Structures
1.
Amino acid sequence: MSHSLRFAPPGQFLAEITQRCLLGHFFLTPSKKLNELVVGVIAKAQEKYPVEIVSLAVPSNHYHLLATANSQEIVSKFMNFVASNVAREAGRLYGWRGRFWAGRYHLIPVSEEEEAQVDRLKYILAQGSKDGLVSSPRNWPGINSAKAQMTGQSIRGIWYNRTGLYHARRKKGGHKARKIDFMEKLSLKLVPLPCWAHLPPEDYQARIRDLVEEIEQETAAMHALAGTSPLGRHAILKQDPLHCPKHLKTTPAPRIHAYTKAARQTFLEAYRTFVKAYRAAAARLASGDLTVEFPEGSFPPPRPFIKAIQGLKPG
């Protein structure tokens, strides 16, 4: 199945990024060790690529990032580093050697409108609560940036330089190389929501607290109406990471998160223009025109196979 074309507005943009585990497996079930490893991977990715994270949440079988970047290329490199290293670390932790992710990450731009940005932030903070697992984002035993955004505290993780450890162990006397000597303690860096970036830190944190309180009230009302109660931290931590649910909730993803019809239409028109230019360039490439130029911000397809000329010998 082909992927939709990746497109974002030129310049710095805000986007929600999601990636799901294969078949909904609970590979990201919270634990102290897994939490540290996932945070460490994302923090190391921040050192390598200029992607700024506003908020993040890691439920048991997928994760959400609300982040800003200035190009799809940077996001692609950042996400490739995160996805590959999280898969290796979690796979090593649970003894899983097969495919880890259901597919490529999914990116949805968020408009510059305050309402759209706040809505996406609240949605990510509500992970776990809106699904009936915990009563508050504060109670999620895994990774949720709510507490850090409310207080300004950092989220800490661990990164292992496994390449360095591998080469050290291949040298003479390498059996003495210790894993702990190739461990780094890293802190995840969070930035304010773009529409609230002008606020002093204490005011920004107060707004995050207001959002969390709204989520708590909505969660309590949801359970009161249904006559249910949250699953709870203890039950979440006891989940089998290799468990595969029988049914997965899926909803169509929009092209953009926008508040007004005008903002959505402006984006869609730019997207259609982009797709038209890309398809035209792809058709020319397929016909053999190797000089064709693709629109800026796109990922061109591989070049076609070049046939050998009959009667000529290589060299």
2.
Amino acid sequence: MELGLKGKVVIVLASSSGLGKAIAREFLEEGARVIMASRSEDKLAQAAMEIGKDMSFPPLYRSCDITDPGDIQELVGFAVKKLGPVSVLVNNAGGPPAGTFDSFGDQAWQKAFELNLLSYVRTIREVLPFMKEKKWGRIVNSTSSSVRQVIENLILSNTFRLGVIGLTKTLSQELAPHNILVNAIGPGRFNTERIRQLDSALAEKKGMPLEEVARQSLSRIPLGRYGDPAEYGKLAVFLCSEANTYITGQTIIADGGMVRAVP
């Protein structure tokens, strides 16, 4: 299948590791021109070197604190200056701290809002003029399987990830006349550092061995394994490609069948 991504300018946020890094790699495989971004320039440089080996167009990268609107503006400006108008945006962000309602005060709620919802609003705002001018664009908002079934001990994530779904659905309606498709992906349990951190937090909360928490989590996945980040990357790339011409406003859960809830 021809995905039509060769030469298209793509920004992938939070791409120095985990799912974001895997997404960036898959875009490179399709010949896209990729800008990687995260807070740590050292981690970005290492990740870009790793996934850029033997690629026709190695990725560019720029450090960016996505809770800082100035950093977001500079990131998009950098992409346009170096490569041209942005055609594809993959919004991604690390998750907020684990915990229950009583664990957090206003400051924690505000930080989670800025990290997991407002940052998406700001990046979309910056790239939209270029997509509207070209009458073509693709936006994927990475969320969590919690948008279908809330996850224990993750009240901050459960709350603001759902806000991203409202944003996604509304924008899909507003931007359809401009041929800009907007979708969300909700990952379940993939083999990433984030999942290991969440397992550790839950083990501490319950006073259980980490191995037992991980075993119980794995037992709830019908496919019997954690996802490979590359599988997530391939899904994101398809949704952002010319092969996708009619899917918009949707939330696709990639979880190996773990979530039992019916949408």
3.
Amino acid sequence: MIPHYKGTVPYISTSEMIEVDRIMIEEYSIDLTRMMENAGINLAILVNRLYLRTNPLGKKVVVVAGSGGNGGGALVAARRLHNWGADINIVLSSKPEKFKEVTRQQYEILMKMGITCSDSIDNDADVIIDGLIGYSIKENPEGRAKELIEGINSSGIPVVSLDTPSGLNLMDGTPGEPTVKAKATLTLALPKIGLFKHKASKYVGDIYLADISVPPELYKKIGIDDHSVRKIFSAGTVVKINKVIVFSK
């Protein structure tokens, strides 16, 4: 079971999350690789418990990965689930040489492990992990990303999105055309405001929150009460949260 945290949870904007990432790296020396590993292990835990029933042996998981941080987190989850016995198929949005360095490193690890990479989504999978596009999107997905989102939505397979369903604008909750329709979204650090907008509700599914090791003291630097953050992950590094905002800064 994933614990359900029913208390108050602060929300965060995308610009504030960018600042959190900056402070993590520059002031706390918690780099992108560490954050990515934390995101990926929590994603693997959630997928395993929700859709593989904690019995991943032989279960089929499609991991759709983009070139940025979300793609890297999804690839970490792929490695973990493979280690636990799942049958992993990776689908990429672009050539690996176009990936950000830390994401490319995660891809190269998987290739050394002999994990399969293909061009299309396996329609008999048990679950799809969406790590295609992160919180930086401002326009409708195009090209390969659009094609993959449409393939995900037409597959009929349950989807777990990392941080946000790909295509969703996390500033105001506006869904792009197209946007992934997730059964569950694992957002990172603190939930982003756009996830709670009414127009986003049919895309995000159930909302879960993952601890990526942001020090609570850091949040004080952007005006968030650190005491409200400390209790959230006391029951586990992944928690389910309410879909209604009950706390604001």
